[in-house]
Amino acid sequence: MCRVEHHFLAGALARLPAQPWIWLSPGAGWWPDPVPAGRGIRLFRQGAGYVGDVHCDVPLPLASESVNAIVLQHLPLASSTALLAECERVLMPGGRLWVTTLNPCSPYRLRWQHQRPAAALPLRWRAALVRSGLHCGDARYLGSLWGTDGRSRGPGLLRASCVLEAEKRVGAMVGPIPAPVRWRAPVAT
Q: pLDDT averaged over the chain?
């Protein structure tokens, strides 16, 4: 879809080369070329399940806390509740999840109006990520810049897509409470 978006996401995965990752996209043609390095599973939605490197459904056939990075590329927000809960389950503590969506304020979304991607406000995605138990950071806007006349060109007002980054944070267990130290007065000999 968007080379800038693929470059950003592939670069993010490249910073974690030894860690396993999952890339979920609307279709097989949406995966970046070349495929990011490392151990990863590429999936796209087909009917009620997912196909690609493996055929599966939600819940994903992965152990809990077994993946360090997940990319959800232009998936519909309406059906994302179960998938986000599953992503939270399979993410390792400190693992990252990136959600990409079309910027609903950008004229660029009209180009994809009758195709699979649907635009959703970043605020709605952020709320869905928080409900699933993930800590959501700032949104980044990537892609083509649009001028006030609606044509893609140099500096403009609105970018084509939005990337939200979330992290799985786990609270540390409280350690034992240390026993109070009682000082005794020195004994004279």
A: 79
Rounded to the nearest 5°, which phi and psi values hold at 147? Answer: -85, 180
Question: Residue 34, preceding bond cis, omega within 30 degrees?
Answer: yes
Q: Which residue has the higher pLDDT, 106 or 109?
A: 106
Distance CA 108, CA 102 (A): 8
Question: CA 168 to CA 40: how far, in whole Å?
Answer: 19
d(Cα 8, Cα 4) in Å, to the nearest integer? 6
Per-residue pLDDT tens digits for 11-55: 888 777 778 999 898 887 777 777 777 788 889 888 888 898 888
Helical axes 122-131 vs 81-90, angle rounded to 10°: 60
Burial class (CB in 10 A: 0-12, 13-18, 19+), 18: exposed
- ∠ CA 82-17-169, rounded to 5°: 45
Both tokens assigned to 119: 């635009």
- pLDDT, one tens digit per residue, over 166-177 is 999 987 777 777
